[in-house]
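Write out the 3D structure for:
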Amino acid sequence: MLTLLKADLQTRHIPVIVTATRGDREQSTRHQADGFLSLPIASKALKQTLAHLTEEAEPSEAAEKPIESLVILRLSPIRYGEQREQPAAIDLNHLLHRHNYRVLEADDLEQAELLAQVWKPNIVLLDSALLDPIAYLRRLSEQSFLSSLPIVTLDSATTQAANQIAGLSVFPCLAPLVEQSVSSGRSETSALLQVIQVAAGFAWRPSVLAIDLAHLDDPSAKESEWLQAMMQYIQTAGFRGAMGRSWVEIIQKLQSQSVDLLLICWHDTTIHLATMQAFLELKSLKSKPPILVLDHRRKIPGNVEAPEVTDFSKVLHDLAAPILPHSLPMEKLLDQINQILT
């Protein structure tokens, strides 16, 4: 709650007093509480604290108009005991708030996923050195919304691990961040701010989610090399690209509205029941992105379409999804994507 209040330009100027046990004093101060009262509350201490904060309040601060700022989701995975001992770090929250950035904090990936869906952050800041970065980042990659965001890393081991996880977009800031950097204004902190701004710029690029129906119907099937190559082409063209690996993940991403275009690769000549049910669920979504279908099926002259294929084509038609041939050149496919998004 303190993080949200102190990160919001409409509430950050309002003094906050925390009432708790003495053991919570340090945590309250670290999260920018303006006052602290130990339980049980003494009347004299309460009056002194209120008088002090009332005298210091500046009316001009209350009139401060909110300005547009970046939203940063800061991950500190200490809950799992995965944090390595590090040199004295700067007060990142203080630094980011000074630049009008809103900071959300989480030490649990499920909690972070929920925060990301609600607040739509521009980047994820992973500020802790991890004992097992590969395992942690694999868990992160399974979170549909988190994995679609740019990740800023602050140590080389985490950066190397993140680069090994398919689908993650990593922006390292490896300059040493020490307490002296904040007070002296040295280049280390400006380097971090530059990386954050670059990563946030990446976050604003349209997001394309690609799905391979053959792989979703049979998870043991090998993903299409053609589709992987196409996604690399799309990313090079300036889009954010991701591969959907389960219907649950795909529906979650669509419900959270983190996808700008859904690209479907249709290989099968038959349609499985699970696929039809998933597309009927997709059809029922109130808000969904544009859909583009690439037809890779081998059409044999004289063959009659199975009833389930006809029904599936009708569902695609109801979704207003253009069906394009597999032979379409990449340049024309990119033109189609740009036209749809425009």
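The CA atoms of residues 79 and 238 lie 36 Å apart.
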